[in-house]
Amino acid sequence: MTNLLELYVKLVGLVLVGLILGRKLPGIVPTRLGQFLFYVGGPISIVSFLRQADLSGQIWIAPAIAYLAIFLGAFLAWVGIQGQAYFTNTIPQKPTQGSLLLAAMVGNTGYLGFPITLAMVGHKYFAWALFYDLLGSLFGSYGLGVALAVRFGNNVSNYLQVTKAILTNPTLWSFGFGLLFRQIKIPILVEFCLDKLAWSAVALSLVLIGMRLSQLKSWSSLPQAGMSLAIKMLLVPLVIGSTLPFFGVTGSAAQVIVLQMGMPPAFATLVIAETFNLDRDLAVTALAMGAMVLLVTLPVWLWLF
After folding, report:
1. Do the beta carbons of residue 214 and residue 22 sit within 8 Å?
2. Mind listing the domains of the chain with CATH numbers?
3. Per-residue model confidence as pLDDT tens digits over 90-138
4. 105 with 85: CB under 8 angstroms?
5. If you placed Cys at 129, which of 36, 117, 222, 286 could pair as Cys (CB 3.0 to 4.6 Å)?
6. Given this model, what pLDDT does residue 78 score?
7. Which tens digit of pLDDT belongs to each residue from 6-30?
8. For residues 280 and 98, which has the higher predicted lDDT (pLDDT)?
């Protein structure tokens, strides 16, 4: 409980700092900060935390569980859409369906999932969160997510550009470099500075979340957003989390996987919605609601698992 309260103080405090700064600073600042974290801060964090992570055990099953969670979320969202059509004789427009599916599929397993995992479980099991995000959520967002956006949106010209963005993603490259860099001994002072830089990047990522939330003005589409969040943050973690022992995943490793599954919708859903002309209002509402719902669901998952 003490760890959870400390985590809440840090999470809420840093996000509030971002909210305040987002309203005071020019709109270009969050963009520049996001670029810095994407190209510099994030890769440094991954390299540093990988040096301290335990890569033994069934760690490669983490991406497989991520894909299972993604497909289950998409399936349940599709069932919800069909149920709405059956009981109300109305069906959302295609752009709304696309955003609803995306919000139910992919979570914020990087900017939020990483610091929460590090705070509640520690460095030893960080690699489980890292594999879940980089080899699961990333391709779920910009792979399957883009394919769905092409299907439900109106703009298909950027498909190859998004594919190129995946292959040139510095986070993926830093992941590979970090695996190799683990074998190299470095001076204690350098190790210390690398660790501090990594944690600074984590703190800045939480500030960035607050800055981006300060720019979200729309609270429309509450019913659809509520359905997506119920699937993404409640049903999927509960169903798949209950089956983790059958995969041989228990203890702290299972806790990391459940925490990653229970994260709110990723910012990538908004990026994809804007790129492919999906329902941006629904994406915005799901992002804002999810960040608040997390404060309630997080202790539930820690207690259950």
Report:
1. yes
2. 2-304 (1.20.1530.20)
3. 888 889 999 999 999 999 887 788 888 888 888 788 889 988 988 888 8
4. no
5. 117
6. 94
7. 888 888 888 899 989 988 888 888 8
8. 98
Q: Which pTM does this prediction carry?
A: 0.81
289 is written with which tokens?
A: 């609601």
CA dist 52 → 8, 119, 122, 191, 272 (Å): 24, 14, 10, 10, 33
DSSP the chain: -HHHHHHHHHHHHHHHHHHHHHHHS-THHHHHHHHHIIIIIHHHHHHHHHHHS---SSTTHHHHHHHHHHHHHHHHHHHHHHHHHHHHS----HHHHHHHHHHHH-B-TTTTHHHHHHHHT-GGGHHHHHHHIIIIIHHIIIIIHHHHHHHHSS--TTHHHHHHHHHT-HHHHHHHHHHHHTTS---HHHHHHHHHHHHHHHHHHHHHHHHHHTT------HHHHHHHHHIIIIIHHHHHHHHGGGGT--HHHHHHHHHHHTSPBPHHHHHHHHHTT--HHHHHHHHHHHHHHHHHHHHHHHHH-
What pLDDT band is residue 155 in, cutting at 50, 70 and 90? low
Measured CA to CA in angstroms, residue 80 lies from 75, 151, 264 at distances of 9, 18, 18
